């Protein structure tokens, strides 16, 4: 199940590494600004996946797999939001 890594997972890993490297000095301030919203979104997504798995009586292995996938997807959304917000703040500061 988890043995295959697709190209989108590789892209996500690359973005996860490059964003802090490129925007490292601005990232702490931005995390203070939007960290709670992103954390709440991730938590709600994982809980939503967990509840739906329990509702449909999925086996525990699939429950964990779906929860991890939900976190990966919302993590990608958080990175997209972060990138967009950093671009806005950069445009406003010049």
Keywords:
single chain, mainly alpha, elongated
Explain the overall architecture.
There is one protein chain. The protein has 94 residues and is mostly helical. It has a domain at 33-85. Helices cover 85% and strands 0% of the residues. The chain contains three helices and no strands. The chain has helices at residues 7-23, 27-55, 60-93. Helix 1 runs parallel beside helix 3 (60-93) and helix 2 runs antiparallel to helix 3 (60-93). The longest helix has 34 residues, at 60-93. The N and C termini lie far apart (47 Å). 3% of the residues are buried.
- Give the C-alpha Rg: 16 Å
Number of distinct beta strands: 0
Q: Termini separation (Å)?
A: 47 Å
Number of helices: 3
Q: Whole-number average pLDDT?
A: 75
The helix content, as a percent range, equals over 70%
Shape: elongated
Residue stretches low in confidence (pLDDT < 50, at least 5 long) are: none
Largest sheet descriptor: none
- SSE order: HHH
Q: Based on helices, strands and strand pairing, what is the structural class? A: mainly alpha
Strand content: under 5%
């Amino acid at each position: 199940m988890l043995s295959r890594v697709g190209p989108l997972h590789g892209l996500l890993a690359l973005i996860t590494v490059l964003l802090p490297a490129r925007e490292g000095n601005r990232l702490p301030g931005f995390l203070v600004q939007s960290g709670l919203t992103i954390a709440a979104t991730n938590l709600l997504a994982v809980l939503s996946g967990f509840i739906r798995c329990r509702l449909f009586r999925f086996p525990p292995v699939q429950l964990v797999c779906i929860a991890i996938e939900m976190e990966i997807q919302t993590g990608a959304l958080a990175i997209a939001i972060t990138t967009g917000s950093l671009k806005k703040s950069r445009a406003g500061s010049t």
